[in-house]
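Anyone up for a design puzzle?
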């Protein structure tokens, strides 16, 4: 049985037990949420290195890291360094977006090493794996690539099944500033236009589901029509696809397959909350996985910040899974430094949202940090920081003359002043040099 089938049968699987312990939740409560589809535990039966995570309402907001080899950078070892960095910083998901040559060798190494859940977009791999140009690929060819990924142990696959003829018609009727920016969506749109056929992932959706069910691979319903700029957000094409995804969500659950639904994209801040509520409504409270949203279009080099702003708002309003964005977004393949900056920004957004949602225990580490700051215990502060190495390096780069302070306030450290006064001690601020 798949996780959702086991949950419906009243079975608490080992994966559910692990997730319940991680989240501090009752296993029976978790099982009921998995049975309803409101929580997914992507856990392919072949991914033996996996430490399962839950994605959905009532759980911590998770983050995903994108990486993978490309034609301009086919360096397996460098991408695996990014994998190790992602694991060290606690990323719960890693998506292999490799699109160059035979990607299976890299994916095999990734799955052997990654304790995080691993996702892929089989559409990216189709041309290289099949060694066919786009118009020559058949519907069954596309399904074959999905099966290869599922057999290898991928925990979730992004399938752009919602870009059918109705969605394409809505797109053509409503001109966009940036058209289609989803890589998978653009390829499927091109294939449909070149061949005159319906989207194979939509036309043969039941076959896709049977492949995924066999390996307990979660379907992540891709948003081919996600807005690529704030001008295009919440338009007819995006909403038409979301309606289709809601229908496909129910069909997947009926087929014994867990679901996550992907969302925008670029979006102005005032639209984000409404979009989260709309997705949860149309997609029956399925877990929502968002890229950003990026709240402005003019910050190349800083899009990890524009994404974190949108991600925090989105997660506070109901999004469950944040895909990180790096400073290299829109510019180039990210390097290790970019990956780290993107992870930290996404972790900050996710944690801030968990506090806003009032998740049990979410603020506990913040309170511990605040207590350490009051006591001016630098080592404890560093140990509690999202990035301990950077915090320590900043503090030590300009050592304070006054012990147990920092070089910003020195003797005028508010914490130190109040601590001493409350302890009945005196303070001395003047130095010999200024008397």
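Challenge accepted. My sequence:
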């Amino acid at each position: 049985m798949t996780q959702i089938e086991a949950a419906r049968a009243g079975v608490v699987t080992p994966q559910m037990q692990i997730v319940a312990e991680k989240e501090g939740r009752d296993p029976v409560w978790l099982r009921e949420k998995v049975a309803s589809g409101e929580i997914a535990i992507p856990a392919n039966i072949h991914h033996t290195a996996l430490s399962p995570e839950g994605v959905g309402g009532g759980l911590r907001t998770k983050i995903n890291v994108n990486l993978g080899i490309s034609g301009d950078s086919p360096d397996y070892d460098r991408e695996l360094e990014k994998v190790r960095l992602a694991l060290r910083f606690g990323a719960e998901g890693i998506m292999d977006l490799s699109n160059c040559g035979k990607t299976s060798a890299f994916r095999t190494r990734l799955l052997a090493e990654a304790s995080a859940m691993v996702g892929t977009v089989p559409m990216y791999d189709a041309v290289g794996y099949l060694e066919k140009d786009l118009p020559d690929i058949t519907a069954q060819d596309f399904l074959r690539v999905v099966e290869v990924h599922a057999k290898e142990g991928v925990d979730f696959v992004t399938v752009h099944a919602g870009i059918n003829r109705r969605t394409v018609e809505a797109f053509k009727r409503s001109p966009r500033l940036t058209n289609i920016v989803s890589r998978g969506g653009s390829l499927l749109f091109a294939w449909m236009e070149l061949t005159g056929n319906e989207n194979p992932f939509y036309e043969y959706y039941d076959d896709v589901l049977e492949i995924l069910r066999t390996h307990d691979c979660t379907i992540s319903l891709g948003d081919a029509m996600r807005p690529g700029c704030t001008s295009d957000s919440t338009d007819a094409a995006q909403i038409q696809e979301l309606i289709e995804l809601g229908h496909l969500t129910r069909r997947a659950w009926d087929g014994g397959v867990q679901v996550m639904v992907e969302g925008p994209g670029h979006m102005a801040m005032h639209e984000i909350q409404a979009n989260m509520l709309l997705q949860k409504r149309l997609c029956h409270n399925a877990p929502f996985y968002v890229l950003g949203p990026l709240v402005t279009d003019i910050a190349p080099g800083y899009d990890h910040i524009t994404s974190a702003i949108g991600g925090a708002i989105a997660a506070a309003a109901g999004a469950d899974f944040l895909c990180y964005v790096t400073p290299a977004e829109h510019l180039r393949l990210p390097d290790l430094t970019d990956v780290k900056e993107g992870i930290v920004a996404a972790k900050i957004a996710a944690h801030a949202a968990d506090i806003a949602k009032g998740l049990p225990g979410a603020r506990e580490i913040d309170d511990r940090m605040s207590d350490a700051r009051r006591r001016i215990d630098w080592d404890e502060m560093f140990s509690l920081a999202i990035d301990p190495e950077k915090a320590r390096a900043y503090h030590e780069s300009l050592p304070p003359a006054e012990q147990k302070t920092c070089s910003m306030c020195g003797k005028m450290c508010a914490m130190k002043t109040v601590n001493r006064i409350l302890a009945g001690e005196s303070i001395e601020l003047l130095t010999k040099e200024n008397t």
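A detail worth pointing out: The longest strand covers residues 62-67.
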